[in-house]
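Appendix B, Record 12. Input sequence as logged:
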Amino acid sequence: MRINYHAIALAALLAIQSGAAPAADPAPVRHLEGSIASGARYTFDVPPNWNGTLLLFSRGYSAGPAAGPVRNVARDEKDLLLARGFALAGSGFSKAGWALEEAVPDQVATLDAFAAQVGKPARTIAWGTSMGGLITIALLERHPQRFDAGLALCASAAGTVGMMNAALDGAFAFKTLLAPDSALPLLFKGPKGEGKQQLAQWQQQLDAAQATPAGRARLALAATLGQVPTWIEPGSAQPAADDIAAQQHQLYRGFVGAVLLPRDDQLARAGGNFSWNTGIDYTAQLEKSGRAAFVRALYAQAGLDLDADLKRLAQAPRIAAEPGAVGYMKRHYAPTGKLAKPVLLVQTVSDPVTLAEFSGEYARLARAAGAGELVREAYVQRVGHCNFKPGETVAALMTLQQRLESGSWNAGGKDASSAPSLNALAASTAPEGGDYTGFRPAPFLRACSGAEARCAGEPGNQSR
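Logged structural output:
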């Protein structure tokens, strides 16, 4: 930021000439950094007009050690939040990768460090993006006494196991129908080393499939079973509901990013494979997806028999998981929906990494657990992973603050979590405003929640 010292000096001179004393410099934001016992670094920012609310931020997935300063905001919201009196805290976690096991205790310890150095907050709101959104949910479910509310942005809110099972479904269907004799890995470890070559092989097979009507139809079926969104490219217009060619093209462009999720760190943590498709009925999954008519139209254009391909999927050898590995990944983390404090889930209508369906699934899970009134979903009319404007994020946090102050989502007769209410707050917060919209995601096909609950097709003994 460039500072106009000439303008400052001129203003001071005019004030002196007019007999008025120059205005005192505003009190600075108090900035603290340090480490907790696990080695995780933290950073705190406390404004002079602290409103008593602490926002504890959880970052998303990082394959390697976090470089540079520890973040305590998602993107560019810091000044907006500090100006409204919020104190900010965040930890880099003591381990990289899918660090749910370490992140949850690290974040609780970060709260203790804040209380010791700054003071106990009147309210604490947990918030996070992507994997950090799942960490936020775990914090609210496991440590309700430490938090007053949570904001899960673009979150892996349906849990680790369900998310990775959905990716397996897409890869399995594609390889079975379009590359049965290839060496394409179904459990993609990551884009490093040998994985880089495997990624290129996947792309070659996808390109070949996209070149023919039959390949496009089968690719669409595989992507639908993996719940790849039909709108992928940022900056592009959302394909019309009846434009099946444009929707199919988006599935082709988004397949790799949505289905080939890195597993190397997760596999090492779990001690084996934690994904499976044993016992999964892909015919039933297609009907449940809401895209059966879309897939059937592409199959008809290609002159293919969809039922025959579904039979091939039913008869193909399946992937089995290791029970102990499943148990580890469900503990870190498969949400339960058992909440004592309010949570707001915010997502773009089309996120190719953390699906909008994940947020809908967590809201369903909370309703089943008797906590439905505590949860609200909000969706932004945009494509992309965690692609939010600063005003949209700040509006969501301000909504949670209002929810805590009033004790209701509907104070004053208006739903504070509705798209009009959030957009009004966003417009009052930042010039670019917000694009919240009314939206209902499709059902999540591979729901798997709770460390103790059994999921569809799950292997038996969970002990490790």
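Residues 1-23 have pLDDT under 50 and may be disordered.
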